[in-house]
Design brief:
Elements: H1 2-9, H2 13-21, H3 24-41, E1 48-52, E2 69-74, E3 84-85, E4 98-104, H4 113-123, E5 124-135, H5 140-147, H6 163-172, E6 175-183, H7 192-197, H8 200-208, E7 215-222
């Protein structure tokens, strides 16, 4: 079981995610995610924006970014939409060289999520932004995952970190949270007619229990730490003992 889980969380997960996002349930979630992510990705300015992973090949998330160069990085085999093949645990970018990063479910299926975030912090420029989405364990999706605890199938074999936990990781790395939103309040039912009848749950969830959406989206900024030098305080010491008369301008002129 451990070998299967490692396989699903390793380099093969991208192809598996794309297959799952082609299902009825996956397409519904992909539409909601794209609408939420694109409005945040549109704020990623600069020269270089990188997306780590391509779980849904038809979303075209980076197209809305005004940045000059867009790079979609994949860690699996060849496939459409991938510009660069590399390991997200060891990014092939120089430090402080990327203006924005997009992580669509990247932490959910990474072997070492902490290392991925450390690499994101390393390559981002100061004041660079990261947009991330992940499955929320405190939701009907999280409950469904618990009921299928031994499942090795996508998406249930992922980590499902809470948004608050990921926010704490960002804070430890010097990021500041700008926004966290939740979406998709329907249960993960694959039957399309049932999903359509449950569409009312989206509005109800946003109003009554907004933190229990199946997916969260985080927008965070890497803050630049500036060191302000401490200036020594100059004080004129009071003279205690009288000294010899000091020459003045008047004494030096005859």
């Amino acid at each position: 079981m451990r070998e299967i889980r490692q396989l699903n969380l390793g380099s093969c997960r991208q192809k598996q995610l794309q297959t799952w996002f082609d299902s009825d349930l996956g397409r519904l979630l992909a539409e909601q995610e794209a609408a939420c992510l694109k409005s945040r990705i549109a704020t990623l300015f600069g020269y270089h924006v990188v997306q780590l992973g391509l779980p849904c090949k038809d979303q075209g998330l980076l197209a809305v970014s005004p940045a000059r160069n867009h790079v979609v990085m994949g860690d699996g085999g060849d496939g459409p939409g991938i510009d660069l093949h590399a390991n997200c645990h060891n990014l092939p970018f120089a430090s402080d060289s990327v203006d924005g990063m997009v992580l669509p479910h990247t932490l959910d299926y990474a072997l070492d999520p902490h290392q991925v975030l450390r690499e994101v912090e390393r390559v981002l420029i100061p004041e660079g932004k990261v947009v991330l989405c992940g499955f929320n364990p405190w939701s009907q999706w999280g409950l469904w995952r618990l009921l299928r605890l031994r499942s090795s199938m996508i998406p249930w074999c992922g980590h499902f970190f809470s948004g608050k936990r990921v926010q704490d990781w960002f804070s430890l790395l010097g990021f500041e949270l700008e926004e966290m939103v939740y979406l998709h309040y329907r249960p993960p039912v694959s039957n399309q007619p049932i999903m359509q009848r449950l569409a009312f749950m989206e509005g109800v969830g946003e109003r009554i229990y907004p933190m229990f959406g199946g997916v969260y989206v985080i927008l965070a900024v890497k803050r630049e730490v500036t060191l302000t030098p401490l200036r020594s305080k100059w004080r004129i010491k009071k003279r205690v003992m009288p000294t010899a008369a000091e020459p003045t301008t008047r004494n030096g002129i005859k």
